[in-house]
């Protein structure tokens, strides 16, 4: 049986309307026109009625531009990278030519971050987003990068300044992605996410927040070191359907146990996760909650499935 080959020049054939491109990429037609004026791409043709028609190559350029922007690359820099990557006479980018594995992407990102090459790290992350789904970026690239940097700091190979700069970079990118994935108020069940008292390591919880928002769950993200009494008051006022609590080390356990009674009568399931729970999953039951799961995508899948299945019953007033 013969197979049908792609016609020569197919990638340059104008075939998609602006609305079809918007449906494929999520980029509004107004933004496409702005990019066309400011950066010289995409390159739509006009049909007999004067409407823009975009080629598959245009769509590829738009997707690359969006991936760079999602990674936090400034728009002008993202446009320059996109044009360079898609130039017809340019060699394939080294990372694509080598077909990098997630581990190799992570190693490259680690190297850029420890060299304080933030522009290079941002550009590399843009390429990674163009190659991998968001949740693979979280679990197979960003998480191993953070673990490697933390281990190098523990071994005394880098300073705490290096570790803080790398963490700040990842935090900023996750914050940007969380905003992009934010679900509008009034749609989807609400979960409240916080780090336990004394817990300042919040990047894993940010990843979980992002993964949940991508599954249609609204998440009120409270951040690091949240007293359990305040967490309970907030969750009741917002009528949260679930509470997510992150503990990454023993340093957060004593204060959590001491104030666990503040969560009594919450009327919503308590999901616990983080490095400490991954090492000791039995702690979840000891603390009166449910183990969320070993990583952000799987935890999000478990939590979202329960929330979307549970009946929408309002809780009592605070």
Describe this structure in words.
Residues 188-318 form the B12-binding domain. GO terms for molecular function: cobalamin binding; DNA binding; DNA-binding transcription factor activity; metal ion binding. It is a single chain. With 318 residues, the chain is α/β, with parallel strands linked by helices. The chain folds into three domains: 12-86, Multidrug-efflux Transporter Regulator, Chain: A, Domain 2, CATH 1.10.1660; 99-179, Methionine synthase domain (Methyltransferase, Methionine Synthase (B12-binding Domains), Chain A, domain 1, Orthogonal Bundle); 185-309, Rossmann fold (3-Layer(aba) Sandwich). Helix content is 53%, strand content 9%. It has 15 helices and eight strands. It has helices at residues 18-25, 29-39, 56-70, 75-86, 94-97, 102-114, 118-131, 134-154, 160-180, 203-213, 228-237, 253-258, 275-279, 283-286, 296-309, and strands spanning 16-17, 45-46, 52-54, 190-195, 218-223, 242-246, 270-273, 290-291. The strands form two sheets. It has a five-stranded parallel beta sheet, sandwiched between helices. A three-stranded antiparallel beta sheet has the order 1-3-2. α10 (203-213) links the parallel β4 and β5 (218-223). α6 runs antiparallel to α7, α9 (160-180) runs parallel beside α10 and α10 (203-213) packs across α15 (296-309). The longest helix is centred in the middle third of the chain and has 21 residues, at 134-154. The protein is globular and about 70 Å long.
């Amino acid at each position: 049986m013969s197979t049908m080959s792609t016609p020569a020049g197919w990638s340059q054939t104008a075939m998609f309307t602006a609305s079809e491109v918007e449906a494929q990429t999520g980029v509004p037609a107004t933004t496409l026109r702005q990019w066309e004026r400011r950066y010289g791409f995409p390159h739509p043709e006009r049909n007999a009625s004067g409407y823009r028609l975009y080629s598959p190559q245009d769509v590829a350029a738009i997707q690359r531009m969006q991936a760079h922007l999602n990674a936090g690359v400034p728009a002008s820099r993202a446009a320059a990278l996109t044009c360079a990557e898609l130039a017809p006479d340019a060699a394939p980018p080294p990372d694509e030519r080598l077909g990098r594995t997630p581990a190799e992407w992570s190693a490259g990102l680690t190297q850029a971050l420890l060299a304080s090459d933030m522009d290079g790290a941002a550009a590399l992350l843009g390429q990674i987003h163009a190659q991998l789904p968001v949740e693979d970026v979280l679990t197979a690239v960003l998480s191993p990068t953070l673990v490697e940097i933390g281990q190098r700091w523990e071994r005394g190979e880098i300073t705490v300044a290096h570790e803080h700069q790398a963490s700040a970079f990842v935090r900023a990118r996750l914050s940007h992605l969380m905003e992009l994935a934010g679900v509008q108020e009034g749609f989807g069940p609400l979960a409240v996410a916080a780090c336990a008292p004394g817990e300042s390591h919040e990047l894993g919880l940010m990843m979980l927040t992002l993964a949940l928002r991508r599954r249609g769950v609204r998440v009120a993200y409270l951040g690091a070191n949240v007293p359990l009494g305040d967490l309970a008051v907030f969750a009741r006022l917002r009528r949260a359907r679930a509470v997510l609590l992150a503990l990454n080390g023993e340093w957060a356990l004593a204060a959590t146990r001491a104030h666990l009674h503040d969560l009594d009568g919450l009327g919503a399931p308590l999901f616990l996760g983080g490095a400490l729970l991954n090492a000791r999953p039995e702690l979840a039951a000891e603390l009166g909650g449910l183990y969320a799961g070993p990583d952000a995508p799987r935890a999000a899948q478990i939590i979202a499935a329960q929330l979307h299945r549970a009946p929408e019953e309002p809780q009592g007033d605070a």
